[in-house]
Automatic annotation (TrEMBL):
Keyword set includes Amino-acid biosynthesis: no
InterPro entries from the UniProt entry: Glutathione-S-Trfase_C_sf, Glutathione_S-Trfase, Glutathione_S-Trfase_N, GST_C, Thioredoxin-like_sf
Domain GST N-terminal: 8-89
Similarity comment text for this entry: Belongs to the GST superfamily.
Protein name (database record): Glutathione S-transferase family protein
Organism: Methylobacterium nonmethylotrophicum
Matches recorded under PROSITE patterns: GST_NTER
Alphabetized UniProt keyword annotations: Transferase
Any one GO MF annotation of this record: transferase activity
Domain of life: Bacteria
Length: 217
């Protein structure tokens, strides 16, 4: 798609600072396409208002509008944008041998990593193996570390949208002590933090968070 989008096709992100939607904002920054941001003050409960519940009944961010398409869930937005803007080089094409591993890591994040980390954060035992979506927390973490030992990125030498998703996630979870800072993860997070788009998103989120704090005061 051309970078010169019509108004009907313009990308619009529903965003709240320092949330999962920061990852979606990062995808947009990396792609470099024009976009608009509709900011929700979650501290004021705007995500529970009727206007936003009509967008996402879950009351969660991110959500992305593109013409008549509405996409929610961080990984789905990443997949959508990476395929919508192939020139950005963030997704192996269908038929590329790396396409399967790429999809694996995009889905593994939501299906295994997040449930395992949430259970660990809540001090909950893993469900019985026959019912657990992730098996064991330790298995999830070792799987991630083993992959990162094979190269700087999840697809080895190739950077992809999966690394934007995981880089953001591992930055937050190690910061809050939910994931151990192994040498592999520490180096991976450092590579993620060095990307210029990460700094731009952090600065924008800091400014928005300050505005929300001032409004609350």
């Amino acid at each position: 798609m051309s970078q010169d989008q019509s108004s009907a096709d313009r990308l619009t992100l529903y965003h709240s600072p320092n949330t999962r939607s920061s990852g979606a904002l990062l995808f947009l920054e990396e792609i470099g396409a024009p976009y608009d941001v509709l900011v929700l003050n979650m501290k004021a409960g705007e995500q529970r208002g009727a206007a936003y519940l009509a967008v996402n009944p879950m009351g969660k961010v991110p959500a992305l509008r593109h013409g008549d398409a509405l996409v929610t869930e961080q990984a789905a937005i990443a997949l959508y944008l990476a395929d919508l803007f192939p020139a950005a080089g963030l997704a192996p094409a269908i038929g590329d041998p790396l396409r399967g591993p790429y999809l694996r890591w995009m889905v593994y994040y939501g299906n295994c990593f997040e449930p395992a980390v949430v259970d660990r954060a809540r001090n909950l035992d893993a469900p019985p193996l026959a019912m657990s979506p992730y098996g064991r927390y330790e298995t999830v973490m070792e799987t991630v570390n083993a992959q990162l030992r094979q190269g700087p990125y999840l697809l080895g030498e190739r950077f992809s949208a999966a690394d934007l998703l995981w880089g953001m996630a591992l930055s937050w979870t190690t910061q809050f002590g939910l994931v151990p800072q192994t040498p592999e993860i520490k180096a991976y997070v450092a590579r993620h933090a060095a990307r210029p788009a990460v700094a731009r998103v952090a600065a924008r989120d800091a400014a928005l968070a300050a505005e929300h704090a001032a409004a609350a005061g």
